[in-house]
Amino acid sequence: MKFPVYNVYRDFFGYPKGDSPRRSLLYILSIRDTIEIVRQVCYQKNSNPFLHYEDRVRKSGLTSKFLRNAKSFFLALEPDYNLTFADAEIWVAPKHLQSCPRGGVSIPVPYLISSKKTEIITLTFGRPENITRELQVLKGLAQYFKINPPWPSGYDTFSYWDLSTGTKSSTNFSNIIPVSSREILKVLNHMVVTINKSA
Q1: pLDDT (tens digit, 9 = 90+) per residue, 136-180?
Q2: Helix locations, the chain, DSSP H
């Protein structure tokens, strides 16, 4: 069972869901496509994936907006596009969860690494004002469960690139106090039960 990390935040903090299933799906697809293109940019170390998307005949206006903001962030921080993309994932074993499939729960948490700035960057899509509380959840997930690959050591600055507004927020990750495992498991178990009921 796989939960995107923004779904975990949504359930943890009670963020409103989309006003229609179709709009929610389009938003999810735009996030997925944006992350994939940012991944390609980091692998290729150039802006070609951004340009190729903009040259498409059929494309999402929302995805285009996300990508324009992402490109601006790249140019401000690493104009040579020299960032590392980490396809990290947090795994919560079945023993921690109720009514969970045998494989447990995986939570993808992709992030970027700037070795020049010793900075870890995560992409967000609409809640930059809640960076501290979301990082408390993220730090708790990584601390109590297994994240692979782990965050690089010696990187204390954790930044949010909010691709919906084009704003950046940064904080010192070592100062973040993680939420308790009990709080995290309460939310994850609720998500598992909800998925099982709708299946």
Answers
A1: 999 999 999 988 888 888 888 899 899 988 988 888 988 999 999
A2: 5-13, 21-44, 48-54, 61-77, 131-144, 181-198
Paired with 84 in beta bridges are 113
Residue type, 97: L
The Cα-based distances of 150 to 93, 111, 163 in angstroms read 17, 11, 24
Q: Which of 93, 119, 95, 125 is nearest to 107 (CA)?
A: 93
Task: State how far Cα 17 lies from the chain centre.
Answer: 17
Q: Which amino acid is at 136?
A: Q
Residue 75 pLDDT level (bands cut at 50, 70, 90): very high
* Domains of the chain by residue range: 5-198
Q: What is the pLDDT of residue 149?
A: 87
- pLDDT-derived band of residue 115, with 50, 70 and 90 as boundaries? confident
**Residues 171, 115: contact at Cβ < 8 Å?**
no
Please state the pTM of the whole predicted model: 0.87
Q: Are 31 and 60 in contact (CB under 8 A)?
A: no
